[in-house]
Amino acid sequence: MLRLPQPSMGLGAGLNFAIAQSLLAAIGGISATLYASEGEPGELFIGLLRDHYPWNREPHPALNPEAAAGYLYNVFRNPLTHALGVFTERVPNSSRRYIVARKDAVKIKRLAPGGVGLEDLAIEALENSSVRPPMSATLTVLPDRKVLLVEGLYWGTRCMLEALTRDSNKMQEAESFVSRIV
């Protein structure tokens, strides 16, 4: 999917939402199996990102890890999972929701240099580099909008999983959990 869009081949869509949804679903699954097997889903998701995502390697780490993880869960993951990507907010002091008035208030963007997807070398850099490739922040939070960069999330999710698997205590817990359910 990172190779898209490819307009010369008649493939004009970048699949921003599909890539983001896949990565956020993977984070959710990892949080509930490898990170911890007990707890509320949102707490596990946020905990995994807080504890193992490479926030310190972001170009401008303005948000603390807890807040950044909360935005990924509440602003991006939940709407993609539960509301077909319709970004909503709660009415203050109510359980009712309303659609975000400005359609650009939440954005999932791609690098797509020149309107085409990434070349193989750029994808390999995302998959192999321990140094964050040059790109904007994974998550940008401004008063009027929140922006998620797919390629940043892709690189960070891989680094997060590597960091988690180096945590021997978490891996022992995961092995114990998996052995009880298999």
Describe the 3D structure.
It is globular, with a radius of gyration of 17 Å. Helix 1 packs across helix 2 and helix 1 crosses helix 3. The protein is mainly alpha-helical. The longest helix has 20 residues. It has one domain. The strands form 2 sheets. It has a 3-stranded mixed beta sheet with strand order 3-5-4.
Note the main attributes of this structure.
single chain; 182 residues; 3-stranded mixed sheet; 6 helices
Helix share, percent: 40-55%
The overall average pLDDT, rounded, is 88
- The global form is globular
Task: List low-pLDDT spans.
Answer: none
Question: Helices and strands in order, then pairings?
Answer:
Elements: H1 16-35, H2 41-52, H3 65-82, E1 88-90, E2 97-99, E3 106-109, H4 120-128, E4 139-142, E5 145-149, H5 150-165, H6 168-181
The gist of it:
With about 180 residues, the chain is mostly helical. It has helices spanning about 15-35, 40-50, 65-80, 120-130, 150-165, 170-180, and strands at about 90, 95-100, 105-110, 140, 145-150.
